[in-house]
Amino acid sequence: MRFTTRSLNPLALPAGLSILALLTACGGSGSSSPAGVVAPPTGTANVLITDAPSDDWSTLQVQVTKVTLVHQEDHSKEEIAFSGNATINLVDMDSIGELLAAAQIPVGSYDLMRVSVNTDPTTMSIIPEGSSTPVPSSQIHIVGSGVIPVAISPVLSVTSGGSNAVQVDFDLAHPLFINQTPTGDVVLNFQLKFRPNPSALHLIQLHRNVGAITSLNATAGTFLMHTVHGRDLTLSTDLNTKFYDVDNRPFSVGSFSGLAAADAVMVASRLQDDGSLYAVRVWYCTTANAANLPIATWSPEGHVVSVNTTNNSMLVDNADGHPRTIDIDSDTAFTFQQSVTIGTGQSYLADVSHGFKVTVDVKDPLARPMHASTVNIERAVDSGYIDSSTTSTTLTYGQAYMNNFRHYAYGPAFSWWDYAQPSSASTSVNAFVAALTGVGTTRVMGISSLTWDPATALWDANTAVLLPVALPVATIVQSYNAATGTMQISYTDPITASVVTKTIDLTSAAGGGQTLVMKVVRQNGVITSGLDDPANWAADLITSATKVWVTVVPQADGTLAAYSVVVLE
């Protein structure tokens, strides 16, 4: 199921989760040398953007204008990985990488990335879930310059011909990223964070690439396409690649030989472990028939909105954000990440849940409803409250009063970490359970990626990420002490209905990260907001009637560290 924080945020804060990944592969150019100067050796970098589900926004569209990598040995030197105006709907990128660009980067070590976003509200489109009306640009307020630095750890080492990778998140789930006030104003404070790589590049799921074919190599089975983001990508094919000729309706099965230069094309691709791109599915047609491409009418990759095991159907989002009904038949085959067989038949629909990311092959794209020939689960996930009944053998999501417990065994490669510190991931299940029980009545929330266990025919928890939890609106009862880095707050516990006092650590948030404090002030109908310098905390975080909204991260020792503090004035 998808994680939502709406019930926790006194400002009705919407939240989601999204990702920017930088991967080495093929094509493009990020630097040049003057005539007569020998250019340094380079590696190739692909820039991707992705995110995770959001229950609160149907559209959150921004323009990424530039991505640079900064040399570790000299932070005054940076290399351009992308420059342009790439308009991307972050909500549509749930855990699927948008292949934004490819660039040649000089060989070396890079420990910092800078991502630039256009801060002009007129270039953005923000639509709340359940609405078709965008937030007016006059009600969108941007904090900062739009240039977001991200520390890369471990350092990215670009080698000639290598396939290095680094990932960071457009951190929509960060409590400070997006705030909506009761008046409807939206405050954006762009946040990015480092994200660890999967064990192999082929495990990274890519969004469809749309563009035009520029050249073909029939002997090698490769073609070059120019994407809508203005970059050239080389894709390989083989006998397993599926081709669809969409010039006419009904669509017909195509072939590599049917491709032609200047054809409009949509490609579902995968990174191979050597960093090259492999085309899994290719839809093509003449430029005049570009409206026939499935991205205009039907997306075979999307979120599962709901599952109906009575009628053997499911709702799946498509590229325009409107879900379509997919019927499951007795011969529908289910797989996990293409390589793991789940089973064939309608009974396996029960193993699909709301929020899963799926690729659907349909028998007839013009049929209503469509019937699935195959359903490949690209990403299985569960999230929400982690129940205190969790043990060293079973991870339990859900809430007793809703009777919605979901139990998972720990996968053989299980690891867990605090939200902002993936580099400090632990494989100790006992330490994980201790962190849950040590926080007392404070709710613990998390998100887990799931993996299919063919032996038990059940989902296992592969990871558990402890998310920042919003405490109820509180007052400061002991001012911030710079010497100890702590303050005390008081609020009414929603479980026990009693007033509790908590000591909050502002210096060791999420495994050593610095807590972020933001002040939101409304005066005479004008909203101002901004990050508060730590030097001012002793003066601003004081005992008073001012309300604070604190999000905390459970730590391994059971204590609470402040991930963020919003001062509501």
In short:
The chain is mainly beta and 569 residues long.
The count of strands amounts to: 38
Catalogue the unreliable spans.
1-32
CA gyration radius, whole angstroms? 24 Å
Most strands sheet: 8 strands, mixed
Average residue pLDDT: 81
Distance between the termini: 35 Å
**Structure classification:** mainly beta
Strand content: over 45%
Number of helices: 4
State the shape. globular
Summed up, the domain count is 5
Helical fraction equals under 10%
Report what the structure shows.
With 569 residues, the chain is mostly beta strands. It has 5 domains: 196 residues, no CATH class; 89 residues, Beta Barrel (OB fold (Dihydrolipoamide Acetyltransferase, E2P)), CATH 2.40.50; 80 residues, Nucleic acid-binding proteins (OB fold (Dihydrolipoamide Acetyltransferase, E2P), Beta Barrel); 82 residues, no CATH class; 98 residues, OB fold (Dihydrolipoamide Acetyltransferase, E2P) (Beta Barrel), CATH 2.40.50. The strands form 6 sheets. Strands 31, 32, 33, 34, 35, 36, 37 and 38 form an 8-stranded mixed beta sheet that branches. A hairpin with a 3-residue loop joins strand 23 and strand 24. The longest helix has 9 residues. It is globular. It starts with 16 loop residues before the first strand and ends with a strand.
